[in-house]
Specification:
The protein is of the alpha+beta class and 547 residues long. It has helices spanning 2-29, 57-69, 73-77, 87-103, 157-169, 181-185, 193-228, 242-259, 264-299, 306-335, 341-357, 359-374, 414-418, 445-461, 495-515; strands spanning 124-130, 137-146, 149-155, 187-188, 191-192, 382-385, 388-395, 399-404, 409-413, 422-424, 431-433, 436-439, 471-477, 482-490. Strands 9-8-7-6-10 form a 5-stranded antiparallel sheet. Strands 11, 12, 13 and 14 form a 4-stranded antiparallel sheet that branches. Strands 1-2-3 form a 3-stranded antiparallel sheet. Helix 2 crosses helix 4 (87-103).
């Protein structure tokens, strides 16, 4: 089921690329012709428009191609800066159209659409460069001033002088000698039927061939790769993933454009298609690479916070995927001549407003990412956080859940945790054994020495006591007892094991005290009478008060 779903996605994506390229070519083919050429106006006051669309270099190129393709020879001649008239001018027009339609690079959208041109050369605009046996030939349009009207852009005289030699080198209409006539004569949207069939049949067939090639090479490459890198799973699933096959398809289209003589409109179509496929393939490949990075980091993350790390990595991956798709959309807009700057400015202002509105949420998310990657709080930790003592049950992007000793669950925002002092009790390598033993004041010095020495021997001989940390001292004359301090660190697995060891040691301490002949003191007070020999007067001698 997964393979069928992936194949369906690939097919739909390829159809989208074809549709986008078809729309682009239809748009190019539907550029304003003579008398209706409308180029984008600059930011300044709009300049007067020429009826034939010759006010801009792009309008001149599109207008000439439209008129020549429609056999409007008298109109097409008006786009040439030539002194020829009559049949000579018509023949030059036909030759220029054939040269441009066959050899001109498919970069018509790069031609300037402003009345002033690109400004690279004074009063001239480079349309493209055509390779020939005698060297490269630059195709220029030049701005020609007219009396009593605005200047217009025409194909320059030096360019027209080189057209007859270029025309002699061109082989016209490939496929006409061995294909049925209707395939080469019928045109749809200005493109011959044979080229449409090549698109609708050739591209899917070539893509299926790349899929078959991937199925053949994947086991072989995976076997070699597995022996070289045993822990790596790269190239074991698919040697040529779908985006790589799309890029191969784009390269094949680019290669065919330099090998097969096609009309300009067809080459514009194939160029647009290759560009759309390239951008789509790169975006798709980056998304797949982002997923591989997520899985790689996930495999190497500690298991304690795996769920939290997975949530954070998934969020980061989606953000990166959105940025990649957004960059791909910007690249497509740039390619088709759409300026996305106003939209980006609006998104920037909107992003600032959203960030201010979600300030607390973003604070908690950033703090959660810090807790996850710093490993400050992990699932299963027993910690003390202010007045809360419990076990960490879950570490999320926004909050952390702690199960207290009362078996209740407390959710604390990560922003607060990041600013609090945490005491992780479960991270102790040793447990502190520190009781204070109070002996009665009737204890003699010999008994006190016996108690101190006996407790010290008890701790030093115990296998789970750190001997270097043992300290037993008579250190204080308390209000009602002689206090003996016991200080030692115990090796225990957990808190329950420590309580077990502590209980055993306390029993032994009581035995040491009893063997010494003394007792544990109780809180008590001794009262001293100032004159103990004074007698209390008898009741008979007490005077009777008068009534």
């Amino acid at each position: 089921m997964r393979k069928r779903s992936a194949s369906g996605v690939e097919f739909r994506l390829l159809c989208v690329c074809l549709l986008a390229s078809v729309l682009a070519v239809v748009t190019v083919g539907a550029q304003p012709g003579p008398g209706a050429a409308k180029d984008p106006a600059p930011a300044q006051a709009p300049a007067p428009q020429d009826p034939l669309g010759r006010s801009t270099p792009r309008g001149t190129v599109f207008g000439f191609l439209s008129a020549a393709r429609g056999d409007q020879n008298e109109v097409a001649v008006q786009y040439l800066n030539t002194r020829l008239r009559g049949e000579d001018a018509v023949e030059l027009t036909r030759q220029l159209f054939v040269v441009l339609d066959t050899r001109l690079p498919a970069r018509l959208r790069e031609v300037s659409g402003t009345p002033q041109g690109s400004g690279l050369a004074p009063q001239q605009e480079l349309v493209g460069t055509i390779a020939s046996a005698r060297g490269n030939v630059d195709i220029f349009v030049e701005r020609v001033a007219r009396a009593g009207s605005e200047p217009v852009w025409l194909f320059s005289s030096p360019t027209l002088e080189s057209i007859p030699l270029l025309y002699e080198e061109i082989a016209l209409d490939w496929g006409r000698t061995f294909l049925p006539r209707f395939l080469t004569t019928i045109r749809i949207g200005g493109i011959r039927l044979v080229e449409w069939l090549a698109v609708l049949l050739g591209l899917p067939v070539f893509y299926l061939l790349t899929h078959l090639l991937s199925r053949i090479l994947t086991p072989l490459i995976g076997l070699v790769w597995g022996r070289l890198f045993k822990r790596s799973s790269l190239f074991r699933r698919d040697f040529l993933p779908p985006p790589a096959r799309l890029l191969l398809l784009a390269l094949a289209i680019r290669w065919l454009l330099y090998r097969v003589p096609l009309p300009l409109l067809a080459r514009q179509f194939w160029t647009n298609l290759a560009s759309v496929i390239t951008i789509t393939g790169i975006v798709w490949l980056l998304i797949l690479f982002n997923g591989e990075v997520e899985r790689y980091v996930q495999r190497r993350f500690p298991r304690t916070n795996l769920s939290a790390a997975a949530a954070l990595l998934r969020l980061g991956r989606r953000v990166v995927d959105l940025l990649v798709v957004f960059a791909g959309g910007i690249a497509l807009l740039r390619y088709y001549g759409v300026d996305p700057t106003p939209a980006l400015a609006g998104l920037g202002v909107g992003g600032i407003a959203v960030a201010l509105a979600a300030q607390k949420t973003l604070e908690n998310v950033v703090a959660g990412a810090s807790l996850i990657f710093d490993q400050a709080v992990r699932v299963g930790d027993f910690l003390k956080m202010g007045d809360i003592v419990g076990t960490v049950d879950h570490v999320g992007l926004r909050s952390t859940r702690i199960r207290t000793l009362d078996r209740t669950v407390v959710s604390i925002p990560n922003g607060q945790i990041a600013n609090m002092s945490l005491e992780t009790l479960s991270e102790r390598d040793k447990f502190w054994f520190h009781p204070i033993v109070g002996l009665r004041y009737e204890t003699t010095s010999e008994q006190l020495h016996e108690v101190v020495g006996g407790v010290r021997r008890l701790l030093s001989d115990h296998p789970l006591v750190d001997r270097e940390s043992v300290r037993v001292r008579f250190f204080r004359l308390g209000p009602s007892s002689l206090d003996v301090e016991i200080f030692a660190y115990l090796f225990a697995r957990d808190w329950a094991h420590f309580l077990e060891i502590q209980e055993h040691l306390l029993f032994n301490v009581i035995e040491v005290v009893n063997k010494a002949g003394t007792q544990i003191a109780l809180p008590s007070q001794t009262m001293y009478v100032a004159n103990p020999q004074a007698r209390v007067p008898a009741a008979d001698n007490v005077p009777t008060p008068a009534r």
